[in-house]
Amino acid sequence: MKRALLAAAFLISAQGAAAQNLVTNGDFSLGNVGFTSDYVYSPVTNNGGAEYTVRTDPFPWNPNFVSVTDHTTGTGFMMVGNGSPTAGEVVWQSTPITIDAATNYFFEAYVMNVCCNANYGGGNSSPVLTFSVSLDGGPANDLQTLTIPLTPAGVWYGLSTSFNSGGATSATLSLINANTELAGNDFALDDVFLGTQSSVVPEPATWAMMLVGFGGIGFQMRRKRAVLARAA
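and the corresponding structure tokens:
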């Protein structure tokens, strides 16, 4: 039983470790490189409008935003954006990525709502992002539109979707604004991922379910051995 649990833990850990990220600077550890955006880069402070920065904390870039750490390590960089009311603006877009034809790919990212802290008393709206992919430089294909919960602010949510590359050998990934509200729509983005398998590791609740399942397997094995012993 113990060996079965250890083997299962190793298998899942190995799968997570083997998930190669094809996105350049998907965790923003290199700063403001490896991607483009329709938003204006404003590294020091948010002057209003559709702007973004790459930093370790949304606060005090915008004094109304919550103070939180990145998703990757808790000490690294994330992309922080002050939202736009214009649907269709590109929040984040990758450089062209070389892919294999006729292959299933996972497109993932972690996003949080960063508006707002207790000092803010204005209006608010949820970040709404569309996952999109362009294959071989062709038109963008919208895969999925997802809304980040408004409350509580400062919580990372994993978003994911998948696509088949068909005959394509190049992909450009985009996260596109789908919110038309003026207030709110403020977000942080981290760990953008593209690969042939998911980078997501089991959450604690998933581990608990797995342990229950392995416990059931162990019980059945012990019961089978007991029956065989009596038969002998």
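(Above: one complete record from the training split.) The chain has a mean pLDDT of 84.
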